[in-house]
Amino acid sequence: MSFARADLDRLSAILAEAAETEIMPRFRRLEDGGIREKTGALDLVTDADEQGEWRIRDLCARAFPQALFVGEESVARDAALLTRIKDAELAIIVDPIDGTSNFAWGMPLFGVMAAVVSRGETVAGLILDPVGRDWHKGLRGAGAWAESVNGRTRDLRVAKPDKLSEMTGLSSWYLMPEPQRSRTVANLAKTKASFNYRCAAYEYRLIAEGLVHFGLHYKLMPWDHAAGVLIHAEAGGYSALLDGSPYSASRHEGGIISAPDRATYELIKREILG
Protein backbone atom coordinates (compact mmCIF):
# COMPACT_ATOMS: atom_id res chain seq x y z
CA MET A 1 0.00 0.00 0.00
CA SER A 2 1.35 3.43 -0.92
CA PHE A 3 1.81 6.09 1.74
CA ALA A 4 2.11 9.55 0.22
CA ARG A 5 3.33 12.92 1.46
CA ALA A 6 -0.26 13.94 2.18
CA ASP A 7 -0.66 10.88 4.41
CA LEU A 8 2.57 11.77 6.21
CA ASP A 9 1.21 15.26 6.82
CA ARG A 10 -2.00 13.81 8.29
CA LEU A 11 -0.03 11.59 10.63
CA SER A 12 2.20 14.51 11.61
CA ALA A 13 -0.86 16.54 12.57
CA ILE A 14 -2.08 13.67 14.77
CA LEU A 15 1.21 13.44 16.66
CA ALA A 16 1.34 17.21 17.09
CA GLU A 17 -2.20 17.31 18.48
CA ALA A 18 -1.49 14.55 20.99
CA ALA A 19 1.71 16.28 22.07
CA GLU A 20 -0.12 19.57 22.58
CA THR A 21 -3.17 18.20 24.37
CA GLU A 22 -1.92 15.18 26.33
CA ILE A 23 1.88 15.21 26.65
CA MET A 24 3.22 18.73 27.13
CA PRO A 25 0.52 19.77 29.65
CA ARG A 26 1.83 16.96 31.88
CA PHE A 27 5.54 17.74 31.49
CA ARG A 28 6.91 18.61 34.95
CA ARG A 29 3.30 18.56 36.17
CA LEU A 30 2.65 14.86 36.74
CA GLU A 31 0.43 14.21 39.73
CA ASP A 32 1.20 11.76 42.52
CA GLY A 33 1.10 8.27 41.08
CA GLY A 34 1.59 9.61 37.57
CA ILE A 35 4.93 7.78 37.19
CA ARG A 36 5.08 3.99 37.47
CA GLU A 37 7.76 1.34 37.02
CA LYS A 38 7.28 -1.39 34.42
CA THR A 39 10.27 -3.73 34.65
CA GLY A 40 12.45 -1.59 36.91
CA ALA A 41 13.62 1.86 37.93
CA LEU A 42 14.94 2.63 34.43
CA ASP A 43 11.81 1.38 32.65
CA LEU A 44 8.99 3.79 33.42
CA VAL A 45 5.55 4.68 32.17
CA THR A 46 3.67 7.88 32.94
CA ASP A 47 0.12 9.14 32.59
CA ALA A 48 1.38 11.20 29.64
CA ASP A 49 2.60 8.05 27.82
CA GLU A 50 -0.76 6.36 28.20
CA GLN A 51 -3.01 9.32 27.50
CA GLY A 52 -0.82 10.42 24.59
CA GLU A 53 -0.99 6.98 23.01
CA TRP A 54 -4.75 6.64 23.43
CA ARG A 55 -5.18 10.04 21.77
CA ILE A 56 -2.96 9.07 18.84
CA ARG A 57 -4.71 5.71 18.53
CA ASP A 58 -8.17 7.28 18.41
CA LEU A 59 -7.14 9.89 15.84
CA CYS A 60 -5.40 7.27 13.69
CA ALA A 61 -8.54 5.12 13.75
CA ARG A 62 -10.42 7.98 12.10
CA ALA A 63 -7.69 9.05 9.66
CA PHE A 64 -6.39 5.58 8.75
CA PRO A 65 -9.21 3.15 9.59
CA GLN A 66 -7.58 0.30 7.63
CA ALA A 67 -4.30 0.46 9.59
CA LEU A 68 -3.10 -1.81 12.36
CA PHE A 69 -2.15 0.38 15.33
CA VAL A 70 0.85 -0.78 17.37
CA GLY A 71 1.84 1.38 20.32
CA GLU A 72 4.34 0.70 23.08
CA GLU A 73 1.66 0.88 25.77
CA SER A 74 -0.81 -1.13 23.66
CA VAL A 75 1.74 -3.93 23.33
CA ALA A 76 2.24 -3.87 27.10
CA ARG A 77 -1.41 -4.95 27.25
CA ASP A 78 -1.45 -7.23 24.19
CA ALA A 79 1.96 -8.57 23.12
CA ALA A 80 0.37 -10.41 20.17
CA LEU A 81 0.21 -7.08 18.32
CA LEU A 82 3.92 -7.45 17.56
CA THR A 83 3.34 -10.64 15.59
CA ARG A 84 0.87 -8.90 13.26
CA ILE A 85 3.29 -6.26 11.96
CA LYS A 86 4.92 -8.47 9.33
CA ASP A 87 1.72 -9.27 7.44
CA ALA A 88 -0.23 -6.04 7.94
CA GLU A 89 -0.95 -4.17 4.74
CA LEU A 90 -0.52 -0.97 6.72
CA ALA A 91 0.70 -0.65 10.31
CA ILE A 92 1.32 2.52 12.30
CA ILE A 93 3.86 1.97 15.06
CA VAL A 94 3.94 4.63 17.77
CA ASP A 95 6.04 5.57 20.76
CA PRO A 96 4.04 8.35 22.46
CA ILE A 97 7.03 9.40 24.57
CA ASP A 98 10.43 8.06 23.67
CA GLY A 99 12.74 8.92 26.53
CA THR A 100 10.14 8.39 29.24
CA SER A 101 12.74 8.48 32.02
CA ASN A 102 13.94 11.87 30.82
CA PHE A 103 10.34 13.09 30.67
CA ALA A 104 9.59 11.76 34.16
CA TRP A 105 12.75 13.39 35.55
CA GLY A 106 11.80 16.74 34.02
CA MET A 107 14.52 16.71 31.36
CA PRO A 108 13.44 18.22 27.99
CA LEU A 109 15.02 15.40 25.99
CA PHE A 110 12.22 13.19 24.68
CA GLY A 111 10.30 12.69 21.48
CA VAL A 112 7.13 11.40 19.88
CA MET A 113 7.83 8.77 17.20
CA ALA A 114 5.78 7.05 14.53
CA ALA A 115 6.69 4.65 11.74
CA VAL A 116 4.49 3.41 8.93
CA VAL A 117 5.09 -0.19 7.86
CA SER A 118 3.60 -2.01 4.87
CA ARG A 119 4.02 -5.81 4.71
CA GLY A 120 6.99 -5.58 7.05
CA GLU A 121 8.73 -2.78 5.14
CA THR A 122 9.04 0.66 6.73
CA VAL A 123 7.80 3.32 4.31
CA ALA A 124 7.69 6.45 6.49
CA GLY A 125 9.09 7.78 9.73
CA LEU A 126 8.36 10.75 11.99
CA ILE A 127 10.23 12.09 15.02
CA LEU A 128 8.72 15.09 16.81
CA ASP A 129 10.47 17.13 19.46
CA PRO A 130 7.41 18.42 21.33
CA VAL A 131 9.48 20.93 23.29
CA GLY A 132 10.96 22.67 20.25
CA ARG A 133 7.97 21.65 18.09
CA ASP A 134 10.23 20.63 15.22
CA TRP A 135 10.51 17.43 13.21
CA HIS A 136 12.70 14.91 11.49
CA LYS A 137 10.78 13.18 8.72
CA GLY A 138 11.45 10.53 6.12
CA LEU A 139 9.49 8.98 3.28
CA ARG A 140 10.81 5.93 1.48
CA GLY A 141 12.32 6.98 -1.85
CA ALA A 142 11.63 10.67 -1.20
CA GLY A 143 14.44 11.55 1.23
CA ALA A 144 14.68 12.76 4.80
CA TRP A 145 14.36 16.28 6.06
CA ALA A 146 14.15 18.45 9.16
CA GLU A 147 11.15 20.74 9.52
CA SER A 148 11.00 23.72 11.86
CA VAL A 149 7.96 25.01 13.72
CA ASN A 150 7.42 27.62 11.00
CA GLY A 151 7.46 25.00 8.25
CA ARG A 152 10.95 25.63 6.88
CA THR A 153 12.70 22.45 5.75
CA ARG A 154 16.25 21.32 5.09
CA ASP A 155 17.55 18.02 3.80
CA LEU A 156 19.26 15.61 6.19
CA ARG A 157 22.62 14.00 5.44
CA VAL A 158 24.62 11.55 7.55
CA ALA A 159 28.24 12.20 8.55
CA LYS A 160 31.11 11.40 6.22
CA PRO A 161 33.08 8.24 7.03
CA ASP A 162 36.20 8.79 9.13
CA LYS A 163 38.86 6.79 10.92
CA LEU A 164 37.68 5.17 14.13
CA SER A 165 39.69 7.41 16.45
CA GLU A 166 37.91 10.47 15.05
CA MET A 167 34.38 9.07 15.16
CA THR A 168 31.73 9.87 17.76
CA GLY A 169 28.84 7.57 18.46
CA LEU A 170 25.84 6.63 20.55
CA SER A 171 25.57 3.34 22.39
CA SER A 172 23.12 1.60 24.70
CA TRP A 173 25.80 -0.85 25.88
CA TYR A 174 24.19 -1.21 29.31
CA LEU A 175 21.44 -3.36 27.78
CA MET A 176 23.88 -5.93 26.41
CA PRO A 177 24.51 -9.29 28.06
CA GLU A 178 27.94 -10.24 29.34
CA PRO A 179 30.62 -10.74 28.10
CA GLN A 180 29.60 -8.56 25.14
CA ARG A 181 28.77 -5.67 27.46
CA SER A 182 32.24 -5.42 29.03
CA ARG A 183 34.00 -5.96 25.70
CA THR A 184 31.94 -3.23 24.01
CA VAL A 185 32.50 -0.71 26.81
CA ALA A 186 36.26 -1.26 26.62
CA ASN A 187 36.34 -0.99 22.83
CA LEU A 188 34.33 2.24 22.74
CA ALA A 189 37.51 3.88 24.06
CA LYS A 190 38.88 3.48 20.53
CA THR A 191 36.49 6.20 19.34
CA LYS A 192 36.78 9.92 19.93
CA ALA A 193 33.73 9.89 22.21
CA SER A 194 30.52 7.96 22.85
CA PHE A 195 27.27 9.07 24.44
CA ASN A 196 23.87 7.80 25.53
CA TYR A 197 20.84 10.05 25.97
CA ARG A 198 18.30 7.38 26.95
CA CYS A 199 16.21 8.61 24.04
CA ALA A 200 16.30 6.88 20.66
CA ALA A 201 14.32 9.75 19.15
CA TYR A 202 17.12 12.22 19.83
CA GLU A 203 19.86 9.74 19.05
CA TYR A 204 18.44 9.05 15.58
CA ARG A 205 18.05 12.77 15.03
CA LEU A 206 21.75 13.25 15.77
CA ILE A 207 22.80 10.37 13.51
CA ALA A 208 20.60 11.50 10.61
CA GLU A 209 21.89 15.07 11.00
CA GLY A 210 25.49 13.87 10.69
CA LEU A 211 26.31 15.27 14.12
CA VAL A 212 27.59 11.86 15.27
CA HIS A 213 28.89 9.05 13.10
CA PHE A 214 27.22 5.93 14.39
CA GLY A 215 24.61 4.42 16.67
CA LEU A 216 24.92 1.05 18.40
CA HIS A 217 21.70 -0.13 20.03
CA TYR A 218 20.90 -3.48 21.57
CA LYS A 219 17.22 -3.44 22.52
CA LEU A 220 15.26 -3.70 19.29
CA MET A 221 11.61 -2.80 19.85
CA PRO A 222 10.01 -1.38 16.69
CA TRP A 223 8.72 1.85 18.24
CA ASP A 224 12.31 2.74 19.17
CA HIS A 225 13.91 2.06 15.78
CA ALA A 226 11.59 1.75 12.79
CA ALA A 227 11.15 5.51 12.26
CA GLY A 228 14.78 6.37 12.96
CA VAL A 229 16.25 3.65 10.73
CA LEU A 230 14.08 4.81 7.81
CA ILE A 231 15.02 8.48 8.31
CA HIS A 232 18.71 7.56 8.64
CA ALA A 233 18.57 5.47 5.45
CA GLU A 234 16.89 8.27 3.51
CA ALA A 235 19.63 10.61 4.77
CA GLY A 236 22.17 8.33 3.09
CA GLY A 237 23.08 6.02 5.98
CA TYR A 238 23.45 2.26 6.30
CA SER A 239 21.99 0.13 9.08
CA ALA A 240 22.02 -3.60 9.74
CA LEU A 241 21.55 -5.96 12.65
CA LEU A 242 24.60 -7.25 14.49
CA ASP A 243 24.47 -10.48 12.47
CA GLY A 244 24.55 -8.49 9.21
CA SER A 245 20.91 -8.99 8.27
CA PRO A 246 18.79 -6.00 7.24
CA TYR A 247 16.63 -4.23 9.81
CA SER A 248 12.91 -5.00 9.86
CA ALA A 249 10.21 -3.77 12.21
CA SER A 250 9.20 -7.41 12.64
CA ARG A 251 12.62 -8.31 14.12
CA HIS A 252 12.73 -7.64 17.86
CA GLU A 253 16.05 -9.15 18.89
CA GLY A 254 19.63 -8.86 17.69
CA GLY A 255 20.84 -5.28 18.14
CA ILE A 256 21.59 -2.79 15.36
CA ILE A 257 24.41 -0.60 14.08
CA SER A 258 23.65 2.58 12.11
CA ALA A 259 26.60 4.08 10.25
CA PRO A 260 27.42 6.40 7.33
CA ASP A 261 28.05 3.46 4.98
CA ARG A 262 28.52 -0.29 4.92
CA ALA A 263 32.31 -0.07 5.32
CA THR A 264 31.88 1.92 8.54
CA TYR A 265 29.26 -0.56 9.74
CA GLU A 266 31.79 -3.37 9.25
CA LEU A 267 34.47 -1.34 11.05
CA ILE A 268 32.24 -0.70 14.07
CA LYS A 269 31.14 -4.33 14.17
CA ARG A 270 34.74 -5.58 14.04
CA GLU A 271 36.46 -3.05 16.33
CA ILE A 272 33.75 -2.25 18.87
CA LEU A 273 31.81 -5.48 19.22
CA GLY A 274 34.99 -7.56 18.84
Structure description:
- The protein is α+β, with helices and mostly antiparallel strands.
- The chain has eight helices and 14 strands.
- The protein has helices spanning 5-23, 47-63, 72-77, 100-104, 180-187, 200-209, 222-234, 262-273, and strands spanning 35-40, 43-46, 68-71, 91-98, 111-118, 121-129, 134-139, 143-147, 153-155, 168-171, 193-195, 214-217, 238-241, 256-259.
- It has a seven-stranded mixed beta sheet with strand order 3-4-5-6-7-8-9, with helices on both faces.
- Helix 3 (72-77) links the parallel strand 3 and strand 4.
- Helix 1 (5-23) runs antiparallel to helix 2 (47-63) and helix 6 runs parallel beside helix 7.
- The radius of gyration is 18 Å and the shape is globular.
- The protein starts with a helix and ends with a helix.
Mean pLDDT: 94
Q: Classify the helix fraction into a percent range.
A: 25-40%
N-to-C SSE series? HEEHEHEHEEEEEEHEHEHEEH
Strand fraction equals 25-35%
**Strand order of the main beta sheet, please?**
3-4-5-6-7-8-9
Measure the end-to-end span: 40 Å
Radius of gyration: 18 Å
Q: What structural class results from the helix and strand content? A: alpha+beta
- Rough shape? globular
**Sheet with the most strands, sense and barrel status:** 7 strands, mixed
Number of strands: 14
Give me the number of helical elements. 8
Helices and strands in order:
Elements: H1 5-23, E1 35-40, E2 43-46, H2 47-63, E3 68-71, H3 72-77, E4 91-98, H4 100-104, E5 111-118, E6 121-129, E7 134-139, E8 143-147, E9 153-155, E10 168-171, H5 180-187, E11 193-195, H6 200-209, E12 214-217, H7 222-234, E13 238-241, E14 256-259, H8 262-273
Parallel strand pairs: 3-4, 10-11, 10-12
Antiparallel strand pairs: 1-2, 4-5, 5-6, 6-7, 7-8, 8-9, 12-14, 13-14
